[in-house]
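User: Predict inositol-phosphate phosphatase's structure from this.
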Amino acid sequence: METIDEFLARRSADVEEAVRKAAATEIMPRFRQLAAHEIDQKAGPHDLVTDADRNAELFLTEALGALLPGSVVVGEEAVHADPATYEAIQGDTPVWIVDPVDGTRQFVHGDDGFCTLVALVRHGVLLASWTYAPARDQLATAVRGGGAFLDGERLSAGPPEPGRALTVATSHPYYTTDDQKRALLTLRTDGVAPRPCGSAGLEYLAIARGELDATAFSWEAAWDHAAGLLLVEEAGGAHLTLSGEPFRVTGGNSLPFTAARDAATARRVAHLLSGGETLREAS
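Assistant:
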């Protein structure tokens, strides 16, 4: 039986092609062309879904499942329809985690800051990821142990420049609890320059490129984080929850959590988010 490593060596280009085709077929024809009836709300006015989201996820569900027989797809829109499907991330089967349009709000408003995210996971371990920004024609990929790349060029985040304030993209207040708001407020301090985040996937790409120092996110949905976290790891970065452990796509994380250009920056941001408490290092 073919291993996942063998599959990735043989079929990564086919996954890339599927991602590009989903965007070309279902997303870009609707970019700046959406009709009112193609846009809906899920949990409220700040949680939008479009026909592009739904149709691109259906396209990828079929294409990715065919590429890796026996795998399952956990997509944002399918989980919204049936939350029980999220439990597949906990199992032994290879799982494709899909966010068809990450940054739907930007997409709806005609901003090019959105992307399609795909990650391959097994036993809770991130194995490979694809981050595609179709309006910018940028594709970032990562394979565990094999590095991170943007359009074929290796990514290396590197440490922040000494002496300047850290730029940190943070969760939007609409998506935070009162406790999380208080934690995020700790970043309003000397030496840190927080700002609201855009598309999570593109913020992770900015870290991997060395253009953003860190994130501080307050939610766990795997489709927003899986692809980007592996990209950051393979570019030399790190991620930490308030427990001092790396973020787990299987859930149960202490929130908010951070991803950063290097381990020292991750520790610094997590330390601030914890209210200055000493973090427990993962064993």
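The chain has a mean pLDDT of 93.
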